[in-house]
Fold each of these.
Amino acid sequence: MEREGEEEKKKEGSYRYWVREATSDAAPPPLPQKLTNNDVVAPNAPALGSLWNQAGTWEEKNLTKWATDRLKELLGSVGSLQFSSGKAEIFDVNRCVGDAFLVTVRNKKRVGYTYELSLKVQGEWSFEEDMKKVKGSLDIAEFSFGELDDLEVDVKLTDEKELSQQLKQRIRLDLKQFLEPVRLKLGQFEQELKDRQ
């Protein structure tokens, strides 16, 4: 019988540590309060990211649709270039494949993208008293944010069978001059991407 009493005290005592008895100097338990609209809306909402992400932890926003449309618009407005023996223009953005995103990390905004481009070009060159119409493409391999200084363009001509080797070489060199205006448009795109919220 004595043993039963000891076991009961042990059981009773083992929970006392976690559920302490209130003493006279302890703070009173909190009372429930009704919240108003002012209490619910965050008074100092973060400038970046969503309202739910006030701590500024990782948040990613996909901007691919906007970026693809904007790249096509900007590159379509490059216009034409005049060369010593001809002129050419970018008349279509044939391929614009990639992705763009905005990431908020620790309340800092970071943007990035990766794209591949193919731009259709057409032009006319005078060669030996004759005007030759030429079509082709400017292919820009994969490039990313901050890599515009390293851009390279690959020129492909579609009607090259009837062109002499000398004329093909001249046309390719001329078309590579589109690289600088394209780089400027991509720089404008990067700035617009950075300014997005």
Note: The domain at 59-195 is CATH 3.15.10.20 (Bactericidal permeability-increasing protein; domain 1).
Amino acid sequence: YFIVNYPTCDLKVICAGKPDLAMSDSSDLREEATAVVKQYIEHGRGAESSAKVYSDSGAKYDQYMEVLNYNAPRKTAEIVAELLKDNFGAKILDVGAGTGLAGAELVKLGYKNLDAVDAAEGLLSVAKQRQIYDKVVCQFVGNEKLLFDNDTYDLALSCGALQENHLPLEAFQDIIRVVKSGGYIVTVFREEAEKVPWYKEGVVAYMTGLEKEGLWKLHLRTTFPNCIADKDGLALVHGVL
């Protein structure tokens, strides 16, 4: 028996003595996942339409990310752990939390004081099932002021939330608002998304501008392999001033 476990939906594919069938199913799922991800980041789609595609695919999202070898959540959690060390009570905001993949990795490491915000209700419904977040808020970050008080969090993170049709760069000013002085903002995404049309001047150029304004300071910049589907990732850590 060949049993494939998908962590959030408890789906089991059992192929008695038929490994070729299991391989075929995996290949089909990868093709399906690739096609859906292309819709997420299709140029010209816009944030609201992209959020709807996310919501509609929420039930299978974790399966898609698994078959595409989505490594960004694990990398994000590793960076957060390096920053917070044994401060397991630190208050953390997961921006663009999706189904809670990054949050789940943080919980494994002992960090459990988490809140989540995302624009796709279909993804957040899965995140709620994990029961790892204290607050779960559905809103378009950047388009609307975050529903959190100033200086609430020790750290905010966004994992995979910078892409075409995704988090607007203007959102970072509001994220900075809700993070305490001396806290951190961790941003992890596919390196090639740094220059997509959605971000005009580029992600790094905009973030450098915020540093010149005295809002935060770059603490760490690193690249890593296999962010998703063999694409390299970029991780940026800023300290809030």
Note: Residues 6 and 66 are 8 Å apart (CA to CA).
Amino acid sequence: SQHSRADSLRLASLSLLAFAAEAACPCGTTAAKMSGIMEYNGAAVIAMAGKDCVAIASDKRYGIRNQTMGCQMKKVFQMNDKVLVGLTGLATDQQTLEQKFRFRSNMYRLREERDMNPKAFANMVSSLLYESRFGPYFCEPVVAGLLDDNTPFLSGMDLLGAQVITDDFMVAGDCTEALYGLCETLYTPQMGPDALFETLAQCLLSGVDRDCLAGWGGVVHILTPEGLTTKHLKGRMD
């Protein structure tokens, strides 16, 4: 069938990636090889909570290890008026998961006659990832959105769907150590949309400058009760 053929092709591609990781690091552990697959294309995502608003940002680079192939890659997707999701990890799995998330979100809308709130969406993402735990998608999603009372909601998870929910900021990607340090330094609670954008932009641009696998510009999405605003950032192109 079409699904079994697609699954066979996906398993074959993952086998090739695992072989490439083993060739690059023949004496490495399983964790090291999996880390190599997670960093194969490069990504950086930050989400931050403000006062009745939330923002999520990502870099634009698409690469194959250290070789840059493009600088307009989309890594943050809007699922509905109140939910955004950022994806880091293997680019092919990012595209697959984005389609699956959108399908399940649309089916929920048809069945329930309402949109998923961010908490329900995060639980759906966690369940979907855990379903494939024996042949996981090599992605670490970050969910950002506004609840019914416009309270910010942030959730991140690993490739098996283990959730972490926070009320300040969430980072994912290759340069998490640098991003964490900048966020802890610059973040303050209850920021408005403009201050949130400035803080998030500075954290992203400074963080990706410390990592050769992410960068080449960025994009910031600010979600408020009035709607979504998207701003593009110019970064170092080297």
Note: The chain is about 40% helix and 30% strand.
Amino acid sequence: MEDAASPNSGSDLNLGGNRGRSIEECQDMIQRSFRNPIVKFLMEQMEKSGCRVGDNFVKAVVCTGLVAGGYTKGITVCSNYLTIQDEVNQVVIHELIHAYDECRAKNLDWTNCAHHACSEIRAGHLSGDCHFKRELLRGFIKLRGHEQECIKRRVLKPLHGNPYCSEVAAKDAMEAVWDTCYNDTKPFDRAP
């Protein structure tokens, strides 16, 4: 997945003149992300669920689409769009939730809009993508209800990039699975 056209492209960007890092620098940042407690926990939970996370499971690449990373049988982190460790950590966490969902579900079908929407809802909710300070940095200022509004906005971006989901189907799928998927915090006891 080195392009935004992949059906399960994940983390989107808020580019502000961002030039990114070299693949080598990004790969070093990925290695440092493995020390993040949430990353460690998610990787342990995948292993416990029977899904091996090998040495090349997370890798830095140069991306052509405007995405920060993605998941397709492995995680890609777009070195050319990320500059700081926190950005890499966020991408790795978001994409690990997709990987965990696929591991746990066994029959997750990325061409099914509802399946894709559910994993995006979970990744947005459980990764901290929509934390108030992140939204503030993106220029979205809302005191009440910002998290769910942010998740909904960010869920639709990758769904619109999924060739199997029309705009209407994407919105309908998100709304149909919202309550179940938003409240599903596995493998966490509650949203971190």
Note: Residues 1-9 have pLDDT under 50 and may be disordered.
